[in-house]
Amino acid sequence: MGRVANKVAVITGGGSGVGRECMRLFAKEGAKVFAIGRTQAKLDAVVREVTAAGGVAAAAIADLSKPAEVERAFAAIMDTFGRVDVLVNNAGVGYALGVSEPGTMNETTTTSPDQWRKVLEINLDSTFLTCRLAIPVMRKQGGGSIVNVASIYGMRGVPDAHAYTASKGAIINYTRSLAVTYAKENIRVNTVSPGFVDTEMVAAVINWFDDPTLAERISPMCRPGKPGEIANACLFFASDESSYCTGSMLAVDGGSTAR
């Protein structure tokens, strides 16, 4: 208990999956938590859950690919809590978008320019837009911690989802650039890169793990990750336990990238 006590943690995509687990875990560990997401009902539910457990939580609805909406969300954060000590950039899209919007998770020749741009706006632009506003606040406070959630598929090639892999690879190197730029101002920036995690984002392909042979090919542990396992990694980078880590990338993937 108390690993992020008295800190204000902003968690994007905080209404479901890994983001929701971060909200619950960070609040349990003493932080005041603020969720940003696109679905009001999900945000309301996680705020109720955190406050019912004795935590302090608030939320704002926003499309994080839109600069004006990000600015409104950050204004709400400052009005509510007055500071930002931790930013977890967890919002993004994955294989589920390929179901609702076919083509977005395709290989290059069958991905339209609009589909490409949409994925990068949601995954990459949102990270830039939130960092752009959080860093000046952290600078004035004397420091802070940013955790950017990328993916192991930002480090390796795959036969589909080219826009997704490009966005996640960009997040990993963007994180390194932020780290070297702001280290002297006590602002740490690190990346958590999950493998397959059992969330809505990969619901369309989670049945791959039903085949033991395929499951072993995906991960030596032969199972998908749990949202809480990713939240634990985010908490490590958010807390002072990782005080000598900046520009680091932690793969949480059941051994997938160890092959």
Question: Can you characterise this structure?
Answer:
This protein is α/β, with parallel strands linked by helices. The protein has a single domain, classed as 3-Layer(aba) Sandwich (Rossmann fold). The protein is built from eight helices and seven strands; from the N terminus they run βαβαβαβααβαβααβ. The protein has a seven-stranded parallel sheet, sandwiched between helices. Helix 6 links the parallel strand 5 and strand 6. Helix 3 runs parallel beside helix 5 and helix 5 packs parallel to helix 6. The chain starts with 7 loop residues before the first strand and ends in a 7-residue tail after the last strand.
Per-chain topology:
Elements: E1 8-12, H1 17-28, E2 32-37, H2 40-52, E3 56-61, H3 67-80, E4 86-89, H4 95-100, H5 113-141, E5 144-149, H6 162-182, E6 187-194, H7 212-218, H8 227-238, E7 249-252
Parallel strand pairs: 1-2, 1-4, 2-3, 4-5, 5-6, 6-7
Please report which band the strand proportion falls in: under 5%, 5-15%, 15-25%, 25-35%, 35-45% or over 45%. 15-25%
Structural class by helix and strand composition: alpha/beta
How many strands appear in the DSSP assignment?
A: 7
Overall mean confidence score, pLDDT: 95
Shape: globular
Measured between the Cα atoms of the first and last residue, the distance is: 35 Å
Q: Any idea of the CATH class?
A: Alpha Beta
Biggest β-sheet, characterized?
7 strands, parallel
Number of domains: 1
**What fold name goes in the CATH topology slot?**
Rossmann fold
Please give the count of helices: 8
Radius of gyration computed on alpha carbons = 17 Å
- H and E order: EHEHEHEHHEHEHHE
- Low-confidence segments, given as residue ranges, are none
